[in-house]
Each structure stands twice: as structure tokens, then as C-alpha cells.
Specification:
The chain is of the alpha/beta class. It has a domain at about 50-175: Nitrogenase molybdenum iron protein domain (Rossmann fold, 3-Layer(aba) Sandwich), CATH 3.40.50. Helix content is about 45%, strand content about 10%. The chain has helices spanning about 1-10, 15-20, 50-60, 75-80, 110-115, 120-130, 145-150, 150-165, 180-195, 220-230, 245-250, 265-275, 290-305, 305-335, 345-355, 370-375, 390, 410-420, 445-455, 465-475, 490-505, 510-515, 520, 525, and strands at about 25, 65-70, 105, 135-140, 165-170, 210-215, 235-240, 255-260, 280-285, 340-345, 360-365, 440, 460-465, 480. Strands 1-12-11-10-13-14 form a six-stranded mixed sheet, with helices on both faces. Strands 3-2-4-5 form a four-stranded parallel sheet, sandwiched between helices. The longest helix is centred in the middle third of the chain and has 29 residues, at about 305-335. The radius of gyration is 24 Å and the shape is globular. The two termini are about 45 Å apart. The structure holds FE-MO-S cluster and 3-hydroxy-3-carboxy-adipic acid. 3-hydroxy-3-carboxy-adipic acid (HCA) binds next to α3 and α20.
Length: about 525
């Protein structure tokens, strides 16, 4: 691995190489090395990253069906984010509110950039209100909004007061805020917490009430998790934000436990809810059959209820035989194959479980925009240097609610559960689960991915749409772990079986090796000499 690392850095100018060297580390699960993460991408490098607006509007708020997501900005920001993420939803009835299929934008023109766009924004809010009478409208700022100083918060307040029965709130999630999508997650968490969570105290019943945080129902993942929770008798109060409604968020403080799927995008919400309302949180992972079983068991252990624990065991016993049957067929064909995973902020970790179930090894993995805690575990949080980019993102001052704070468990009870092995408020990160000598690479560049493929020749590479076809032209199949390539669900037991079958097809197809680019074949046609005068 150290020679591979050298190879990756060799082409860079010394200053760039020095900086990238800190983001490319050779893993040692015993003594986790430090990874440079959540820092600015070096200009000139082709990154996989997106922007803060993508993390706020697209990722966190996008999957909620009955909030009108109105983008204040040029049309491109809306259009190119329109339904590309495959977050599914299921309204209660065919007439039920669902604005996800719409693309709302103020369609900012040069005129608004020069003279201000607040008037246009007010008109757009009024128009959306008149057409749909939604319960809520979220306003999302794109880059020009911050540059010209349009005040989306003041406009939201004014229109909220004018319209009376519509909750309107703004997000200062301009694309350039922070260094990646990650800043947008934090901004989204803050505003939903401030303007929505806690507004509806109704107790809707249920013995074991949880919220699912950081599960966005890509390819129907949340439907599969909902099916399992339902079967076990666990009540899902709110989901942030796959297959969710605004009322779920308003009512979410009535749950007794927050479980987190994607730590990166939503840990802020979990911490704020614990401080204000007294709801503990716990990391889970429903990617992988074994992980799903473990996550259900851990939820049951938190509630310390014998009946629930027994029911969870019954459900696992019912679900597992089908999984085992498929894996025993596929395993001999996938065993020993090599994978690489470079995706956002959690899947590069979670999907290693599914590959392990297939007997496949993860040679190298990394996040686009994870923080050090997503790699090294939350214990490093106190040591993370807070730079200017992070300081730019508001940190809400949250205190216990004088009326609604109700610790679900005493500190002693939580300590007892922890002592029994239930890691409440913990996330160990990706690196303890990766082999010694595997390469961990943060914010991998396009050049580094190509080099890695050349040097390691993996059987499958996992990334997104921008990487897909370049990698496949190199003769290596690429599995999109963002959109699932139009497949899924991959969560839970049903999802695991879907994944095994899809990966088997991909790593065992000979078609990739048969692809030869014309220029590799008919050399002479493309040969030329560049002549200077
Ligand atoms: Fe969390 Fe996500 Fe991910 Fe993410 Fe994303 Fe996504 Fe992702 Mo694309 S919230 S960090 S910002 S698990 S959109 S559903 S697939 S990069 S690994
Ligand atoms: C985003 C969304 C994205 C992009 C996926 C990709 C997603 O970051 O804005 O690059 O293929 O999952 O849709 O991560």
C-alpha cells in the first residue's frame, strides 16, 4: 500500500502532493491513523463532491413529500436536482399531497441578480400557496442569493405572517457555504429543528416509539426498513426524511429513541433533540442482512422488553432462511473478489458489510465529504480543528425545553446499557471495520481513482454517475451506490438479496473485459505527431 500511495502522489506538484498525502492513509484498525477530512478541495483537482445546496435541498429536505421545496435561484440549480436522487415516497392516498414530482424555482434572471430578487421570491411563494395551499414551504438559497444579499429569512417571515396557515422557512444553503454537501446537511438540520420539530405534541400511541434518522428511502430502502419495524411491533414516529411528512417532523419529539442510519448527514439533529427533549440516540445500520439483524436486536435491547426481544428473534428467524439460500448459491462465485467504494458520507462504510457477506474484500474506500469522526470514530471529535469554513456554519445553542424535556432514561440506566455493550451516542467510524493495509482516501480525485484502478484492478468499483462510464470504459464494472443504478432496495433482508444478485451479475460478467476502445484496436488511424515550428 505504501508504494501505491507513492504512485498516486507522484504526478502532483510538491505542495499538492503534501496536502493529498494527509487524505490518503494506510489503515491500521488497531491504531487508527488520522485522516484529513472536511477540508477544501485543492483547486484544479477533479473532485466527486457537490455543493452545500445539494446537501440541504436535495439530500435532507428533498425526500419530504408535503413541503413545497422552492429554490431561489437560476433554473439550472432546480432542474438538475429534479428527481435524480431516486428518493421514493408513498402518500396515504392517491390524492395525498406529494410535491416531489414538481420542480419549484424562482427562475432568477440577470435582472434579479442586479436589482435584487426578493420581490420575485414573494411572488413565487404566493403563487405556490395559491396553487397548492401546502402546509409548509421551504426556501433554498443558491449561490447568487448570498452574493446579492437577498434575505430569504425575512421574506419567509413576512409571507408566513401574511398567509397565516403555512409554515414558511428559509435556508442559507448557498452552494459555496462550507466545503461540500456536508455544510448543507448541517444547515438543513438547524432550520428543521428550529422551525418544525416539536410543534405537535399529540401522542399517537405505540409501545416502542422511534425516529429513523438519516434514511432517505433511496430505491425504496425505507419501505423495507418500515416493513421490518412494523413486523417487530416497533412504531416509527418520524423518518428524517425518507417517505416522510412535515407532521412527522413536528411530532418527532414524542419518540423514545432516535436511531441513526447516516451519521454524517443528521447527527446534529440527534444531538439537538437529546439536549432539548431528552431522547437518546443510537447508531444502526440496515445495510447487510447481519447488520439488519443486529440493528433490530439493539433497538429491542434499548427498550429492555422481553416480548419485543422475542418478537425480534422470531422476525430474524423468519427472514434469514431466504437470505441464506441465496448467499449459499452466490458466495462461491463472488468469494475473493475485490471491491472499492467511494461515495458520500456513510455508504462507503455501510456497503462494506454487504460485500463481506459476499466474501468480497474492500481494498480501498473513502468518503466524498465525511468528517474525521466518520472515519476514525466520534472519540476524535474534541480534537477536530475548527477551521474558518466550519465556523461559517451556524451552531445552534440548544437547551433543555422547560416544558417538554423528559429524559427517556436516567444517566445510570444509559450507563448500564452501555456497560452491557449497547453503544448509545457512539459511532466507531469506518476504519475499525477495514483491514490493516487497506487504503482510506478522503475526497478522492478523478486522477487518483483511475490510478487506483490501474494498479489494483478491482472486480468492482462503487461510486456515482460522474465516475460510472469512465470506469466502465476501463473494463471495470461500476455500481452506483447513490442511485443504485435504477435498482434497489438494498436495505434490510430483501435488500441484501437484491444486492447479492446484482453484484453477482456484475462481477461475473465477462462483457467488461471484452470492451476495447477503437483507438486501442486500430492504432494507426489515430497516430499523429505534433510538430512545433
Ligand atoms: Fe448520508 Fe445519503 Fe451518504 Fe449523504 Fe449523498 Fe445519498 Fe451518498 Mo449520494 S445522506 S452521506 S449526501 S447516506 S445523496 S442518500 S448517496 S452522497 S453516501
Ligand atoms: C448529491 C446527490 C448525489 C449525487 C450522486 C452521484 C446522489 O450529492 O448532490 O454523483 O451520482 O446520491 O444523488 O450524491
Amino acid at each position: 500500500p505504501s508504494t501505491i500511495k507513492e504512485e498516486l502522489l507522484k504526478k502532483y506538484p510538491p505542495k499538492v502532493a503534501k496536502k493529498r498525502a494527509k487524505a490518503i492513509v494506510i489503515n491500521d484498525p488497531e491504531e487508527i491513523p488520522q485522516v484529513q477530512a472536511n477540508t477544501r478541495t485543492i483547486p484544479g483537482i477533479i473532485t466527486q463532491r457537490g455543493c452545500s445546496y445539494a446537501g440541504c435541498k436535495g439530500v435532507v429536505l428533498g425526500p419530504t413529500r408535503d413541503i413545497v421545496n422552492l429554490v431561489h435561484g437560476p433554473i439550472g440549480c432546480s432542474f438538475y436536482a429534479w428527481l435524480t436522487r431516486r428518493n421514493q415516497t408513498r402518500p396515504d392516498s392517491p390524492e395525498g399531497e406529494n410535491y416531489m414530482t414538481y420542480c419549484f424555482s424562482t427562475d432568477m434572471q440577470e435582472e434579479h441578480v442586479v436589482f435584487g430578487g426578493e420581490k420575485k421570491l414573494k411572488q413565487a411563494i404566493q403563487e405556490a400557496y395559491d396553487l397548492f395551499h401546502p402546509k409548509a414551504i421551504g426556501i433554498f438559497s443558491t449561490c447568487p442569493v448570498g452574493l446579492i444579499g437577498d434575505d430569504v429569512h425575512a421574506v419567509s417571515k413576512e409571507m408566513r405572517e401574511k398567509l397565516g396557515d403555512c409554515n414558511i422557512f428559509g435556508f442559507s444553503c448557498e452552494g459555496y457555504k462550507g466545503v461540500s454537501q456536508s455544510a448543507g446537511h448541517h444547515i438543513a438540520n438547524n432550520q428543521v429543528f428550529k422551525h418544525v420539530v416539536g410543534l405537535d405534541d399529540t401522542d399517537n400511541g405505540g409501545k416502542f416509539k422511534i425516529n429513523m434518522l438519516g434514511e432517505y428511502n433511496i430505491g425504496g430502502d425505507a419501505f423495507e426498513i418500515e416493513r421490518l419495524l412494523d413486523k417487530c411491533g416497533i412504531t416509527l414516529v418520524a423518518s428524517f426524511s425518507g417517505n416522510s411528512t412535515i407532521n412527522q417532523f413536528e411530532n418527532s419529539h414524542t419518540a423514545d429513541l432516535n436511531v441513526i442510519m447516516c451519521h454524517r448527514s443528521i447527527n446534529y439533529m440527534a444531538e439537538m433533540m437529546e439536549t432539548k427533549y431528552g431522547i437518546p440516540w443510537m447508531k444502526v445500520n440496515f445495510i447487510g442482512a447481519e447488520s439488519s439483524a443486529k440493528s433490530l436486536r439493539r433497538i429491542a435491547r434499548y427498550f429492555e422488553d422481553d416480548e419485543l426481544m422475542a418478537r425480534v428473534e422470531e422476525v430474524i428467524a423468519e427472514e434469514m432462511p431466504a437470505v441464506d439460500a441465496i448467499i449459499s448459491d452466490i458466495y462461491p462465485r463472488t468469494k475473493g473478489k475485490l471491491a472499492m467504494l467511494f461515495v458520500g458520507g456513510s455508504r462507503a462504510h455501510h456497503y462494506q458489510e454487504l460485500f463481506a457477506e459476499l466474501g468480497m474484500e474492500t481494498l480501498s474506500a473513502g468518503y466524498e465529504f465525511g468528517h474525521r469522526d466518520d472515519y476514525e470514530g466520534r472519540k476524535v471529535i474534541p480534537n477536530i480543528k475548527i477551521d474558518a469554513d466550519t465556523k461559517n456554519i451556524e451552531e445552534l445553542k440548544v437547551t433543555a425545553d422547560p416544558d417538554k424535556f423528559k429524559p427517556r432514561r436516567t444517566e445510570e440506566e444509559l450507563a448500564k446499557l452501555k456497560a452491557e455493550g449497547l453503544d448509545i451516542r457512539e459511532y466507531e467510524g469506518m476504519m475499525p471495520d477495514m483491514k490493516s493495509g487497506s487504503l482510506v482516501i478522503d475526497d478522492i480525485s478523478h486522477y487518483e481513482s483511475e490510478k487506483l484502478i490501474e494498479l489494483y484492478k478491482p472486480d468492482i468499483f462503487c461510486a456515482g454517475i460522474k465516475e460510472k462510464y469512465v470506469v466502465q470504459k476501463m473494463g471495470v464494472p461500476l455500481k452506483q451506490l447513490h442511485s443504485y443504478d435504477y435498482g434497489g432496495p438494498y436495505a434490510g433482508f430483501t435488500g441484501a438479496m437484491n444486492f447479492y444478485k446484482d453484484i453477482d451479475r456484475m462481477v461475473n460478467s465477462r462483457v467488461w473485459k471484452l470492451i476495447q476502445a477503437p483507438w486501442e484496436d486500430v492504432q494507426s488511424e489515430l497516430e499523429a505527431t505534433y510538430v512545433t515550428q
